[in-house]
Design brief:
Blueprint lengths: L2 H24 L1 H29 L10 H7 L6 H8 L4 E2 L8 E6 L5 E7 L2 E8 L20
Antiparallel strand pairs: 1-2, 2-3, 3-4
Helix pairs in contact: 1-2, 2-4
Length: 149
């Protein structure tokens, strides 16, 4: 069974068990306390999402300051919101809307880019691509002869 499907079942089940246990232990006061805690948890997640999106709105879609640094910071299993928080930009979506896996790309000023693949909302794999250095960009060799002593 995929991890995401298990999460969709276990979290609501855990909430129901928690509310039931609170009712058994403290009656209606327990339900009110647990409900308040759940609302606070939801508001914290909503606030974090809004903060990440506000920071991301200032950068172009698919932009990252350094693709190499992003590549070094990525870890398997993190969610898309975590990657958006690291890059401070929404990724350029390469996959079709609603298609699994979801594929996003972030590109820096040197045209290096990181392509990330998310399966069930979690980072499964990623690839850093750096453009080949151009020959005309290499420093010119000096044609002057070495000095004699």
């Amino acid at each position: 069974m995929p991890h995401m499907n298990l999460r969709k079942i276990l979290i609501p089940l855990l909430i129901v068990v928690l509310v039931f246990a609170a009712y058994r232990a403290y009656g209606m006061q327990g339900i009110i306390t647990v409900s308040g805690g759940l609302v606070m948890w939801a508001l914290l997640h909503y606030t974090r999402l809004m903060n990440v999106m506000q920071k991301a709105r200032h950068n172009p879609i698919g932009y990252v300051g350094s693709a190499v640094m992003l590549n070094a910071k990525l870890k398997p299993g993190v969610n898309l919101m975590h990657v958006v928080a690291m890059t401070r930009a929404l990724g350029e979506q390469l996959s079709a809307e609603g298609q699994e896996p979801e594929v996003y790309r972030w590109t820096d000023g040197t045209k290096s880019h990181v392509t990330c693949e998310f399966v069930n909302g979690r980072l499964a794999r990623w690839e850093l691509v750096r453009p080949a250095p151009r020959e005309d960009a290499a420093p010119a060799q000096s044609a002057a002869p070495a000095g004699e002593s």
